[in-house]
Design brief:
Layout (H helix, E strand, L loop, with lengths): L35 H8 L23 H4 L13 E4 L4 H12 L4 E5 L3 E5 L3 H13 L3 E4 L10 E4 L7 H10 L4 E8 L6 E9 L2
Antiparallel strand pairs: 1-3, 1-4, 2-3, 5-7, 6-7
């Protein structure tokens, strides 16, 4: 039996470089490196701590220590004076002039449709004075009552238009009621009688 002999491993020749390695002229093996964290802080400084300033609440606001301001009473609310509407006035200029003289104030008036005059009293006392003068001259008018003079009113329906108001008052008195006045209501625009009776009882 023949056995083949293995070839010897080829020997690798040793090669050496007789020259110095090439390196850049400015290479310094011991050069210090800059601190990246410090450089980052220099380039991007931190912003100061900004906090939102909220206005103080009502409970935290200081109270006024001024004695004049703290003791000043609230201003009273001006009372509303309702206007008076007069139907079919004969001489509006003379009528307004008489109201000014009676109330010693500047009463203004405005003409409305269907020959009506709207009078604006300046105070509650002037309103009462003008109402008395209108009643004295037998003028037809309507207005709203003052807040301190409001009375209970009752409207009766279902009666004919020719029913006498005196009979209604007499019947209510028989039922132990105390009516002050009773009159038939009229339509403001058409001026026709409505089958409604307005009764003002005693408070």
């Amino acid at each position: 039996m023949c056995v083949k002999k293995s070839k010897k491993a080829e020997e690798v020749p040793f090669v050496s470089n007789p020259y110095q390695p090439i390196a850049p002229e400015d290479y310094e093996p011991d050069m210090e490196l800059s601190n990246e964290e410090e450089q980052y802080r220099e380039n991007y400084p931190e912003f100061p701590n900004l906090t939102s300033v909220m206005p103080p609440s009502a409970s935290e606001q200081p109270l006024s220590t001024d004695p004049i301001q703290s003791q000043q009473p609230p201003q009273p609310k001006k009372k509303y004076v309702p206007p008076i509407i007069i139907d079919d006035p004969s001489n509006t200029a003379q009528l307004i002039k008489s109201f000014n003289e009676l109330t010693d104030s500047k009463v203004e008036g405005k003409l409305l449709s269907n020959n009506r005059l709207k009078v604006f009293p300046t105070s509650a006392e002037a309103h009462r004075t003008i109402q008395k003068e209108i009643t004295k001259k037998n003028l037809k008018s309507h207005t709203f009552e003052m807040e301190d003079e409001r009375q209970l009113k009752v409207v009766i329906r279902g009666l004919p238009e020719d029913y006498a108001p005196e009979d209604i008052i007499e019947y209510l008195q028989s039922l132990k009621f105390k009516p002050i006045q009773c009159h038939l209501l009229r339509h403001r625009q058409t001026k026709t009688n409505n089958p409604l009776y307005l009764v003002t009882p005693e408070n």
